[in-house]
Amino acid sequence: MATFDERAKDWDTPEHIERSVAVANAIAAAIPLGRSMRVIEIGAGTGLLGLQLADRIGSLLLTDPSAGMLEVADEKIRRAGLGQVATRRYELVTDPPPAGGFDLLLSQLMLHHVKDTAAALAAVHDLLVPGGQLALADLDAEDGTFHDAEAEGIHHHGFERDRLASIVAAAGLTGIAFATATSIERDGRDYPLFLLTARRPRD
Q1: What was the pLDDT predicted at 150?
Q2: Are 20 and 49 in contact (CB under 8 A)?
Q3: Count of beta carbons in the 10 Å neighbourhood of residue 90
Q4: How far from 136 is each of 14, 34, 139, 173, CA to CA, in Å?
Q5: CA nearest to 33, candidates 126, 93, 103, 110
Q6: Predicted confidence (pLDDT) per residue in 164-178, tens digit
């Protein structure tokens, strides 16, 4: 089984790029972006999603548990001269959070890799400033055929939207909404990818 570190240099396939562009466009349509926004991406990998939005926000912190993925992201940042973008190794549920709080938290196909969904969303809440927003893309519930047997760290075969909304609400987030961001075609089947948006209430 190839790890994410081992797959990092070949991660930016046309499929992965196309998916990230579609999700970035869905986020930009759902959330007003601004040059004062402090943004964090969880499970950023090589930065395919967050870097699509970097020129429309203030600062961006790309986080991922994989050092190999972040090495690729660092090289992209260096080549593009993106002084407002940084990277950090970070596990959402177990690591101390970056300081300062964020106006927007992004993630794409991260949540199904986290065993404890409720703990993950509680950690998301704590990363956001009051009024901060979440934009999380992941798979709708599927029958387990999306990933092959060699896939690393799969804890959920997508999510039922209503059930996930209940977990998001229990974590203290409000204004919960879903839209279909894109779909992924694999072996003749379409797997929808939802965009969940929500907000930490203002104190």
Answers
A1: 67
A2: yes
A3: 21
A4: 21, 18, 10, 13
A5: 103
A6: 999 999 999 999 999
Placement of tokens 């699509």 in the chain: 52
Q: Which CATH architecture has domain 4-199?
A: 3-Layer(aba) Sandwich (3.40)
Strands 85-89 and 38-42: unpaired
Question: Which one has a higher pLDDT value, 1 or 9?
Answer: 9
Beta bridge partners of 136: 107, 196
Runs of H (alpha helix) within 31-116: 50-53, 67-80
pTM: 0.93
Give which of 154, 157, 136, 152 is closest to 5, Cα–Cα: 152
Q: Which contacts of 55-58 are long-range, i.e. CB under 8 A and separated by 24 or more positions?
A: 56/28, 57/33, 57/104, 58/34, 58/84
- The token pair at 74 is 């660092």
Query: Helices (DSSP H) in 31-98: which residue ranges?
Result: 50-53, 67-80
Provide the residue ranges of all domains of the chain, joining segments of one domain with +: 4-199
CA angle 184, 20, 179 (to 5 degrees): 65
Q: How confident is the model at residue 129, as a pLDDT?
A: 97
Residues, the chain, total? 203
What confidence tier does 111 reach under pLDDT thresholds 50, 70, 90? very high
Cα distances (Å, whole numbers) of residue 163 to 140, 158, 169, 173, 176: 11, 11, 10, 14, 12
- Spatial separation of the C-alpha atoms in residues 193 and 180, rounded to whole Å: 6
Show the tokens assigned to 106: 């992004």
> How many other C-beta atoms lie within 10 A of the C-beta of residue 96?
7
